Structures are given as structure tokens and as C-alpha cells.
Structure of RNA polymerase-binding protein RbpA:
Amino acid sequence: MAERSLRGTNLSALSMESDENVTFSERQTVRYNCPQGHVIELPFSVEAELPALWECRCGGEAKLENGPEPERKPTKPVRTHWDMLLERRSIPELEDLLEERLQFLRERRGVAKKKAS
């Protein structure tokens, strides 16, 4: 054991400070309601700014009971691969590319494209 270590104390669990002459701030119990029916009760200081939303144990968003409606930030719609492709190419261009690739695959397989007469 190294000589530098402190013997006889457990630094992780014990504090050398006492609670004498300490005044705790006043507490209030705040309720949050989840859409799944869960109720969350949390202690907050009376001076604390209360968040409008709290993450529930089920992963949903619980709203502050009797609180203001939370502000929702506008979100962008999710861009799919198809949306990004359409930003670069038009439908006729995509149809031409598809036909080229199909022709290439048919030639590799040795199957000639049949033309309608």
C-alpha cells in the first residue's frame, strides 16, 4: 500500500463537514403527468425554475401538472434518400438511368431485350 493514502477514512462515503448551522432551502413537491398514465413527483427548491417537461421512466415526455403548455420548437421534416435524390435528378433522368442499368444487367446475363413490334 502506498504511504500517500489516507488510512482510516472512507473518502467516497464520508464527509468531514457537519450539518450544524446549515439552513436548507424550502422545498416543494412538483407533479408531472405522462401520457401513459405515469405520475412523477419530484422535490424542487421553491426558488428553482420548474421545467415544463420531464422525461418519464417509460421514455415519454411528462408535462408539468397545472403548468404552462411547453413551447415546441419547429422541427424540419425528415429527408429521405428519395427526397435527396429528387433534389439532384428529375424523374425522366431517373427513368433513363434505370433503363441503362437494366440493359447492362440483361447483357451481363446474356438475355437480349425483347422489343415490342
Notes: The longest strand covers residues 27-33.
